[in-house]
User: Fold this.
Amino acid sequence: MRKRIGIICIFLGIACMLSSVGFIVYNRWEDQNAEKIAHNLLEEVQSVMSEKQPPQPLPDDTVDLPDDPEVIPAEMATIPVDGYDCIGILSVPVLELELPVLTDWSYVKLKKAPCLYYGTYYEKNFVIAAHNYKSHFGRLSELQAGDLVVFTDVTGTDHFYEVALLETLPKEATQEMIASGFDLSLYTCTTGGASRVTVRCNTIDNP
Assistant:
């Protein structure tokens, strides 16, 4: 009887080991696949943006301003890329990251690229989410206060930010995520998904 139990335990151990190896291999494949998809989307976004003509100056050097300078556009400009709407490109130089950002986040889209979670860069309540793939937001925890983050919208305008704070929030802390008082928040889930690694940023002038 003991021998049979020992054999069963050995087989269970082997099964667990194979399962763990399979999980690691699958995660690595998923990460590499996400990197490839995001890279292809990025190239398409850059191609479309490069084809856009810069706005022409108005006659007599006049400037067309809205009647109310406090008016904020209702929506950010987008361009269609491979069946998705993209609002621009996020760059994190210290991590050597350059990724397209899609609109209307979903779990399917997050497997391809970071997505807009809430807000706009106009209103300075911009929140971008991504999976914790190494090629996406898996290295956010390496950022430090003072690091540069750049968001380039689809018109080619650069929005510069500086990392101000890193924090970990519970996954249910939605209000804390979107009402932070920071101009830009980047976040991803921790391993297991219980918490959110969150990077808070504030707008800076052209560095």
Remarks:
- The chain has three helices and nine strands.
- Helices lie at 2-51, 107-110, 174-178.
- The two ends are 73 Å apart (CA to CA).
- Residues 109 and 115 are 7 Å apart (CA to CA).
